[in-house]
Structures are given as C-alpha cells and as structure tokens.
C-alpha cells in the first residue's frame, strides 16, 4: 500500500495482520457496537463486527531522505506479554527489501512511542547480540518518552523491550533524543500527542500544499473516532488519550489531510455529529 503527499511518498510494510482478537486492546469495541458504525465496513471491520488491524512500518520518502516510522514487533524477541510475539521468524525485512527499501538504504528511524509493537525491528540479533537493524540510520526518540521508559520499565516484559529494542540503539551511538515538536526535515515535523504513552508523538507531513499525519497509537482503530472515550487499557493516561484524540481530530477534520494509523490504513476524517467518522482511501 502506497500513498503520495506532494513530493513525499509513504509505503506501508506489513509485519502481520489480525481480524478480531482485540478484546484486550479495545474492550468496549464489541461486535454489537462495531456493527453500529457501518462506515467501518469493509475496510476496517468485517460484516459481523470484527475489527481489522495490522502491525506495520511506514516508509516515508522525501526528496532527500528515507525514513521508517515505527518498526513493529521484530524477530527473535523474548519476554513479550503476548506469547505469539516471542521468537518470531517473520519475513518483514525480506518484504521490506522486496518493496525497494533495503535496511541499509534507510537514513532515519522515528518511533512514535516506545511500546513493544513499535520498536521491535529497531534491532536484530547478530552473534547473540542486539544490533541496529538500520545500520546507516539515526534513530529519533522523543526525550520524554525515552526517559519515562528508561526509568519506569517496571515489569519484566517492559524491561525486556527496553533492553533489546531501545537501549542497544543508545549503546551503538545511533539514538538522538528530540523534542516532541521537533522539525525533522523541510517536509516533516512532530506533533505531541500524549496519552497512550507520556511522550507519544505523531508525524506531520506537509509538501506542495498537501498534508498527512501518521498518528501512531493516538487511535488504535477508526472506531475510536466515533467513540473518543474508547481508550485502551494500554494507555498510560486514558483521560489524556481521549482528550488528545479530540484535539487532534478537531484540528484536521473535514480537510484533505491524509490520516494513517499505526494499526490501520489511510483515510480522511469527517465530522459526524458530536464525534467523527473515517472515510477510507481506496
């Protein structure tokens, strides 16, 4: 899947997809409630009300840069809270290379936040050691986000993620800690979108009068556009997460701005009563 925003190209590289299986992520999104949102079907939900989601990376090409936004779950990792994410042997890097994006061609990695399914391919296992997957890239971490997880990875699964997918980037001298509103290139800047995690950021693209925003996990699924209060138990601050959605969506609603999620495809945001709906780009 590819999209174009002015001179910027965005490509989605899928690690894996899911249908249903999200009770722990969005417990209020029952099949009954999802079926009340017919605009979700067929792109974001099935006819019987199961949510469609994916874990993916987004490759952003500007005239001067190749940037990866978020890096999925990764291979060979251990200690994950979801046992199916342990010791994976997926084809993500091969798929990425086949799409024209060899790891060594990437010059920048941006993590919207430092959760398990957004940092996994930051590193890969080589000779029993975790090394940067994108050896020629500078990895950009929001300073507040990094410091939070450095100091508060207080469960075994969180500590495992930090130790194998974040800290090795620092040790390799590849990390740059940045502000939540940093400008990355002429076309790309960050917008602070806290709530899901303390230093969560979204990636804003503006090129030749066209705009896109890569929202990470500000919303896990478009159903949260209709129900802003459907926060996930994985949010650091569910109230702030809902308020961030309201502020972010209100800013860009009914504009040509392309929205792309950390777990769903692109669309445009439209006002729908007191909330919002999402129109898929096909």
Helix and strand run = EEHEEHEHEEEHHHEEEEHHEEE
Global morphology: globular
Estimated share of beta-strand residues: 25-35%
Helix % is 10-25%
Structural class: alpha/beta
Annotated CATH architecture: 4-Layer Sandwich
Distance between the termini: 10 Å
Cα radius of gyration in angstroms:
18 Å
Number of separate structural domains? 1
Total beta-strand segments: 15
Total of helices: 8
Assembly of the depicted chains: single chain
Spatial strand order of the main sheet: 1-2-3-4-5-8-9
Could you tell me the CATH topology label.
Answer: Metallo-beta-lactamase, Chain A
CATH class: Alpha Beta
Description:
There is one protein chain. This protein has helices at 31-35, 92-98, 116-119, 143-152, 156-165, 167-171, 223-226, 238-252; strands spanning 2-5, 8-19, 52-61, 66-69, 108-110, 123-126, 129-132, 138-142, 175-178, 188-192, 201-207, 210-214, 258-260, 267-272, 275-280. With 282 residues, the chain is of the alpha/beta class. The chain has one domain (2-280): Metallo-beta-lactamase, Chain A, CATH 3.60.15. A hairpin with an 8-residue loop joins strand 10 (188-192) and strand 11 (201-207).
């Amino acid at each position: 899947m590819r999209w174009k925003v002015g001179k910027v190209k965005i490509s989605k590289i899928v690690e894996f997809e899911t249908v249903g299986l999200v009770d722990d992520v969005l417990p209020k999104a029952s099949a009954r409630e999802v079926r009340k949102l017919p605009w979700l079907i067929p792109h974001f939900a099935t006819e019987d009300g199961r949510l469609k989601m994916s874990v993916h990376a987004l490759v952003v090409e500007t005239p001067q840069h190749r940037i990866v936004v978020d890096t999925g779950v990764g291979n060979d990792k251990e200690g994950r809270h979801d046992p199916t994410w342990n010791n994976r042997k997926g084809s993500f890097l091969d798929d990425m290379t086949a799409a024209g994006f060899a790891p060594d061609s990437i010059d920048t990695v941006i993590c919207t936040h430092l959760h398990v399914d957004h940092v996994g391919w930051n590193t890969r296992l080589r000779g029993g050691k975790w090394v940067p997957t994108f050896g020629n890239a500078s990895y950009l971490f929001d300073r507040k986000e990094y410091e939070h997880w450095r100091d508060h990875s207080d469960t075994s699964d969180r500590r495992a993620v930090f130790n194998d997918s974040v800290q090795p980037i620092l040790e390799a001298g590849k990390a740059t800690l940045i502000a939540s509103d940093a400008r990355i290139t002429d076309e790309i800047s960050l917008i602070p979108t806290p709530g899901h995690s303390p230093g969560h950021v979204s990636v804003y693209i503006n090129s030749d009068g066209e705009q896109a925003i890569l929202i990470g996990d500000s919303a896990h699924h478009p159903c949260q556009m209709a129900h802003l209060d459907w926060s996930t138990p994985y949010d650091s601050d569910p109230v702030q997460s809902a308020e961030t959605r309201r502020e972010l969506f209100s800013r860009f609603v009914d504009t040509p701005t392309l929205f792309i999620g950390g777990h769903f495809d692109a669309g445009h945001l439209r006002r729908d009563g007191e909330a919002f709906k999402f129109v898929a780009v096909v």
